[in-house]
Structures are given as C-alpha cells and as structure tokens.
Specification:
The chain is of the alpha/beta class. 37% of the residues lie in helices and 20% in strands. The protein contains 17 helices and 24 strands. Strands 1, 2, 3, 5, 13, 14 and 15 form a seven-stranded mixed beta sheet that branches. The chain has a seven-stranded mixed beta sheet with strand order 18-19-17-16-22-23-24. A two-stranded antiparallel ribbon has the order 4-7. Helix 10 crosses helix 15, helix 11 packs antiparallel against helix 13 and helix 13 packs across helix 14. It is globular.
Length: 485
C-alpha cells in the first residue's frame, strides 16, 4: 500500500492506494485560515499536524489492515508558504500562506533586481516565499534573527514525519530562490534576502526517497519499519502526477480555492513578463508552466457567504444549459490577482448591475468571471510558447457542468472530465510514494485516467462569449486607477 498526504488550505487529505493504483480509501482533517489583517493569510503548523492525525485516524478506523501494509508515503501541499523554524526545531511564527499579499512592496523590490527573473524564470510575486522573508526581516527582525530553516508547508510535515529537512524541486521553484533551469538553490538570490543555503532544506526530485517515517509514528499508525517518504510535490505538480499531465502538450484546469491552468513541458520555457509560472515538475528533467488566478471556487464561496445560499444551490439555479453572458461583468480579484496582472492591490468588482440583476444573474457573472480569468491564463501561456488543444478539469468546481461549459466556451476548446475516481494531489502524492518506494518508472506510473465525458464549447455562444471576454479585459485597466492603494 502507498499513502498520499495532501496538505490543502482547507484541510489535509490522506489517500491510500494499492500496488495497482486502486484507491482503497481516504479521509480528511479540517483546517481554517487566520486573516488577522486585510491581505494577510496564515495558518499554525501545529494545526497541520492535528489535521494529519485526524485524517490518518479516519483511515485507520476504516482501513487499518491496509494501512499496516504501507511501504511509501508521498507528500503534497499548498506552495509558497513561509514556515520559519528555530535552532531547536520550534515554529517561530504562524506560516504566511500562498494567498497572503502583505509583502507586495518587498516583492516589487526583489523583482526589480534582474537576477531574480533571470535565474528563477518568474516574476517575484507577493505570494512567493522570498518576499515574505524580506517582510519578516523588516517588520519582525527579532524573529528573522532566529531562523535556522525556512520550510514549505508540506516539508514541515516531512520534518514532523521523519526529522529530515528536505524539499522537492517543484515546490522549491515557487520560493524565488531556486535556479529553475539548474534545479539548485541560488546563493545569490538567498543573499539578496539576507539568507544562506544553510537555512534551506536539501533538494531532491519528487520521485526520490526523502526520509523514513519515524518509528514512533509508524507504531502509532500500525505501520511497519522503513516506510519511505518521497520527495513529493507542490500541490499543482502533484495534481499533474495524479492526472498523468507529465508530457509536453498535456494540460489541466483546476477549479479549487485558486484556479490553475497547468501545462507540462519537456524543457524549461520561461517568460516571466507574461506572469506565467515556469517551475520544475515533480519528475526529473521535466518542467511545467502554469497560470494562476487567486480566487476560483473562492469567488463562488464568497458569493455563497454573501447570499446565504450554498454553492451547489447557487449553481443549480442556473440549470444545465449554458446561457449567453448578461450585461453584468464580475472580476474575481478578491485577493488580488497573479496571472496575468501580478497585482496584489487590485480587488474584485461587479459592473453593469441593474434592477433585473437578481441572484442568478450575479451567480452567472461570478462563474463567467472565473472562466474569463482562466482565458487570460490561456492567452498568457500562448505568449510563453505553449500550445494547448484541450484540457482536463479537476477540483471541486468541476462538479458544475454549467461552469465547465462556460470554461470550454471561453477557452474555445474541449474540457474532458475524468472517469469517476480521485485523481487530485493526494493521488499524485501517493503515486510519488509508490515510485520512491519501489523504483518504478515514473512515466509508466503517472498515466492519464480514462475520460468519462467531454464538454464541448457551445458554438452558438462563441461570439457572445468573445464579446463578453473583451469587455471583461477592458475593465481591469479602468478600475486599476480607482482601486484603493
């Protein structure tokens, strides 16, 4: 058996597979996000441990015998988080998360240093790890002085699981300290933020062994000795391993808290000015590009909170047949936006409201706004030299056929829905655990799932959608000047 642990923003998922990659069972542990100030987003690492223990307890209760046969564990987690560790292994402050935008001033200053884009292949976004450390150095110098290690969220779980300070290439590429082409830490970029390589975890490929499960945890969970922990991956690269998106031309769209358009690449193809991420993949000698929007299902969840209706109820009000866009335009910039604008200060808007703009119209506008934000990502990927002809949809938002039809029509390409099964980050992490424990060939393991259904673009609405998309594009520059600084 092989275990995947995915540390998500809203919870930890533990998923168990057998040697034939059949899903045996899964369980979850819940997490919350602390937002003590506008633009801030934090979690306490002790809560990650609690949620992991909760998820493992759930698996043990339902599949204790199978859990005892685990030989490998793979890790996945939300990227970019700054988990600061002192000399005795203690956590120095809450982890600053991926969607925290407090360090936008520091990010702009680092991005003005040409070495960062040249070596990382990326803009220094406020959500990345390096500017967060620059913020801590400026605003919490007493904490900065105590830092012995900087760990990404899933790698703090690894430290707890194994006692090892290690990270993989895909997750580390999101720090703004990695020389992405060379797959190695850059001492020059670390020095630019007052740090050294000694404060970084060691680097491994996602498919390599990166620690062994501590004996006391193995005993507590009913596992044997010598359980291998894989290098693992950042959440999007892990999802790609789960989806079999590991070769050039393969792509998926993820509708989770954030939205991602992910394309695998056989070579390193940076174009930072497009605000497209160019990162290492979890597999050796492989890279990927992705565009990221900060609020996908998060936008619908916000709308749900405001209206007092569940997300499912809101989308069901629209029916199953895609409608032409209304006069209402929604920009989903509730936490700023990454691709293509790299704008931490911008905030969302509804435009074109009228007396006839009822709840269903606003719901439709929210879904279309996210679809058009993903279209922005597609245009950015095209400008960076990537060609995509179809995508596979994953994430909680992909349960809405209406939303998928909207995305297919906005992108003007088919959207495939994988056959029933769990092919997300936890499954990808479990696959990496299998590879690390057995030495299996990564390409033969990371295959694509069967497609159960394909959502085609609605040809009769393509012109309406294109008109609405061009209107959507025109709103950002108009509201940027009006947005509070």
């Amino acid at each position: 058996m092989y275990l995947g642990l995915d540390l998500g923003t809203s919870g930890v998922k533990a998923l168990l597979i057998d040697g034939d990659q059949r899903v045996i069972g899964s369980a979850n542990g819940a997490l919350d996000v602390s937002r003590p100030h506008p633009g801030w987003s934090e979690q306490y690492p002790v809560d990650w441990i609690r949620a992991t223990q909760q998820a493992i307890a759930g698996l043990k209760a339902s599949h204790g015998r199978e859990l005892s046969a685990v030989k490998g564990i793979g890790l996945s987690g939300h990227m970019h988080g700054a988990t600061l560790i002192g000399s005795d292994g203690e956590v120095l402050r809450p982890c600053i998360l991926w969607n925290d935008t407090r360090s936008h001033v520091e990010a702009a200053a680092l991005d003005a240093d040409p070495r960062f884009r040249a070596l990382t292949g990326n803009i220094v976004f406020p959500g990345f790890t390096a500017p967060k450390l620059a913020w801590v150095a400026k605003h919490e110098p007493e904490i900065f002085a105590k830092i012995a290690k900087v760990l990404l969220p899933k790698d703090y779980l690894r430290f707890w699981l194994s006692g090892e300070y290690l990270s993989d290439m895909s997750d580390s590429a999101g720090t703004a300290w990695l020389d992405t082409g060379k797959r190695a830490w850059s001492s020059a970029l670390l020095e630019a933020t007052g740090l050294s390589e000694s404060q970084m975890p060691g680097l491994v490929e996602g498919t390599e062994q990166a620690g062994l499960l501590k004996a006391e945890l193995a005993a507590e969970w009913g596992m044997g000795a010598g359980v291998v922990i894989a290098g693992g991956a950042g959440d999007n690269a892990a999802s790609a391993c789960g989806m079999g998106t590991v070769a050039a031309g393969q792509a998926f769209v993820s509708l989770g808290t954030s939205g991602v358009l992910f394309a695998a690449n056989g070579s390193y193809l940076p174009k930072p000015e497009s605000a497209v991420h160019a990162f290492c993949h979890a597999l050796p000698n492989t890279w990927h590009q992705m565009g990221v929007i900060l609020s996908a299902t998060d936008a619908l969840n916000w709308h749900s909170h405001v209206t007092g209706k569940s997300a499912g109820d809101l989308t069901s009000e629209l029916g199953d047949t895609l409608k032409a866009p209304s006069s209402v335009t929604f920009l989903p910039y509730l936490s700023g936006e990454r691709t293509p604008h790299n704008d931490a200060k911008i905030r969302g808007t509804f435009l074109g409201l009228g007396h006839e703009s009822d709840r269903a119209v606003l719901t439709q506008a929210v879904l279309e706004g996210v679809s058009f934000a993903i279209r922005d990502n597609l245009e950015a990927l095209k400008s960076a030299g990537t060609s995509i002809s179809r995508v596979t949809a994953i994430g909680g938002g992909s349960r809405s056929r209406y939303w998928l039809a909207s995305i297919a029509t906005a992108l003007d390409m088919p959207v495939d829905i994988p056959a029933d099964g769990d092919f997300g980050a936890a499954f990808g992490a479990a696959r990496l655990g299998l590879i690390a424990a057995t030495g299996a060939d990564p390409i033969s393991v990371c295959t694509a799932p069967a497609t159960s259904e394909t959502i085609e673009p609605v040809a009769g609405l393509s012109a309406d959608y294109e008109t609405a998309y061009q209107r959507y594009r025109s709103v950002y520059p108009a509201i940027k000047a009006l947005n509070p600084s």
